[in-house]
Amino acid sequence: MQTLHISDQAAEQLNLMAAKEHISSRDLIERLIVKHRQELEARATEQERQQSLKAFFAPYRKDLGDFKFDRDEANAR
């Protein structure tokens, strides 16, 4: 096992948070690590989902860069 060196201020905050949760500092650190890992995995999953949706809709995207709206032409219709 490795020794962790943290500042007095961080240690004090850790102890306050652990006391508020009624758990040990070690258990709180473990919870924070697990939560952080889950958030990273969820973020990666969300990015994969977004990439998948972008790839799916890519053929349906139209280039409207040269489009100009002409009110007179639209009113004539």
Task: Explain the overall architecture.
With 77 residues, this protein is mostly helical. The protein contains 3 helices and no strands. It has helices spanning 8-21, 25-57, 71-76. Helix 1 packs across helix 2 (25-57). The termini are far apart. The model has no long low-confidence stretch (mean pLDDT 89).
Top keywords for this entry?
3 helices, elongated, mainly alpha, 77 residues
Helix content: 55-70%
Question: Could you give the distance between the termini?
Answer: 78 Å
Q: Output the helix-strand order.
A: HHH
Q: Structural class per helix/strand content? A: mainly alpha
Largest sheet: none
| Estimated radius of gyration | 27 Å
Count of extended strands: 0
The portion of residues forming beta strands comes to under 5%
Overall mean pLDDT stands at 89
Shape: elongated
DSSP summary: helix tally: 3
Runs in which pLDDT lies below 50 for 5 or more consecutive residues are none
